[in-house]
Design brief:
single chain, seven-stranded mixed beta sheet, globular, alpha+beta
Length: 235
């Protein structure tokens, strides 16, 4: 082969490899997180990874941790997963509350409105921690217009709450409900918040067709998830 042809071929191969890296990285990250959380719905994990990749494509700095909440599951099961994206391992697998106006044991209603006392769907970026009326808490910025972008104004934060309890789940058939915040057990709240503060991502999922069709964070490429998402409602 002539030297100039060999050089052109190598350049083409290197360029192909370079531009395929993001997709390959997302695929390998998705596989690693699914393996780390075998009891999670793999399709929900795939959507969360896609959302995190889309956030990077839209210019946000890369997160080190990703929390995934599957609100299609009942409140009596551990439906919150927190992953370390660099080490690709599971850090927390926990109960998490939904808003009192989102439902009883099963969440089914979601809102972005002030005073709705309901959970909001979509991708969030965390901000700083603080100490408030619910103790050590974590502010979050909702990134999805119309779905969760009122989160900061609504004071939708991660905090510990005594009503998030396996004992209450057994006694009442559900854990307690928040005013819209993803509240967690007090025993792990401080450590979980410290792992998630300052620019990490939280992905709040439910198979809501309007959100799945319009979210720029899960439809930022050519593929769309709306038609296949109906199968995501069961783990």
């Amino acid at each position: 082969m002539a030297p100039h042809r060999f050089g052109c071929l190598m350049t083409a191969l290197l360029l192909t490899a370079f531009f395929s890296l993001p997709a390959a990285y997302a695929d390998s990250l998705e596989a690693a997180l699914v393996k780390a959380a075998p009891d999670a719905n793999a399709k929900v994990i795939a959507l969360a990874v896609r959302a995190s990749q889309c956030s990077r494509a839209q210019g946000t700095s890369p997160a080190q941790r990703l929390a995934v909440i599957d609100y299609s599951l009942p409140s009596t099961v551990q439906r919150l997963w927190v992953f370390d994206l660099k080490q690709r391992k599971l850090l927390f697998h926990e109960l998490v509350a939904h808003g009192r106006n989102s439902g009883e044991n099963m969440a089914s209603q979601f809102s972005n409105q002030n005073a709705s006392y309901a959970t909001s769907l979509g991708l969030y970026r965390t901000q700083s921690s603080y100490v408030g009326q619910n103790g050590y808490s974590l502010r979050m910025e909702g990134l999805e217009p119309g779905f969760n972008d009122n989160a900061f104004e609504r004071a939708i934060v991660i905090h510990g709450a005594p009503y998030v309890s396996p004992a209450l789940a057994r006694a009442n058939g559900r854990i307690g409900r928040s005013l819209g915040c993803p509240a967690v057990r007090p025993a792990i709240a401080h450590r979980l918040i410290d792992s998630m503060k300052d620019g990490q991502l939280l992905f709040s999922y439910y198979p809501d067709q309007r959100w799945l069709k319009s979210s720029s964070y899960i439809n930022c490429g050519n593929a769309t998830v709306a038609d296949s998402s109906r199968s995501n409602s069961s783990p």
